[in-house]
Description:
By secondary structure, the protein is mostly helical. The protein folds into 2 domains: 5-56, no CATH class; 62-295, MetI-like (MetI-like fold, Orthogonal Bundle). The protein has helices spanning 14-40, 60-67, 69-103, 108-120, 123-133, 140-149, 160-187, 192-200, 205-233, 237-242, 256-266, 270-295, and strands spanning 43-44, 55-56. Strands 1-2 form a two-stranded antiparallel sheet. Helix 3 runs antiparallel to helix 9 and helix 7 (160-187) packs across helix 9. The chain is globular.
Amino acid sequence: xxxxxxxxxxxxxxxxxxxxxxxxxxxxxxxxxxxxxxxxxxxxxxxxxxxxxxxxxxxxxxxxxxxxxxxxxxxxxxxxxxxxxxxxxxxxxxxxxxxxxxxxxxxxxxxxxxxxxxxxxxxxxxxxxxxxxxxxxxxxxxxxxxxxxxxxxxxxxxxxxxxxxxxxxxxxxxxxxxxxxxxxxxxxxxxxxxxxxxxxxxxxxxxxxxxxxxxxxxxxxxxxxxxxxxxxxxxxxxxxxxxxxxxxxxxxxxxxxxxxxxxxxxxxxxxxxxxxxxxxxxxxxxxxxxxxxxxxxxxxxx
Length: 302
């Protein structure tokens, strides 16, 4: 049964009608929150007072954020965690991916799956697991250190100097498998002829890795490091759960995302939280641009 001409879609408008559900949902859950948060950045508003309580304050929220000692401490914590958890991910994932690619044939999928499991595991489950491992009196980490090196029990989550390393270890453990999968996929694209020619010329394993594997992985390194920069600066779940949402002792585990949450829902300052979120966005954009300039493959490079 054919539709009457009045109900038929014009070929010109049919594609837009078909994708309109996505556009409507994206506008509601994507564009509107972004625009509203930018609007709130220039307003003073406590949501408990209602929409009528909004008051325009100009750049006061941004000025307050730039002068807030807690905000800068949260940014420093975020940068430390992003660096100390992000860099080791790639330093371990690249040689590990090369080893799996060269050594495992039949069992490769199983090995990849084992490394990828932490990435798809619930963050809450991971935090609970590591809370037990880092327990002062009963944790396996303290038990291992004491039996191997005679080190007395360490209060990992109760002392400021140990909170950030604990979070960094969890983030590294969770995401290193994801990067291994990325680099394994990239290794499939490097022609085997290059390795065969290098072997015939007498190049060793390390020379092949340095002059063939690493240059071949450069586009994926750019992609993986970019994801690590963006994800590291938005780190929220692990520090929030491990520190009970309060940042831990001396706020040593409070990241920028955790502080934004506290500003909005603990201190009821949605204007200040919105301003800080846009400052964080500017930092993420700047570091992403720097990563792009440093690591993006040049045209004509191999």
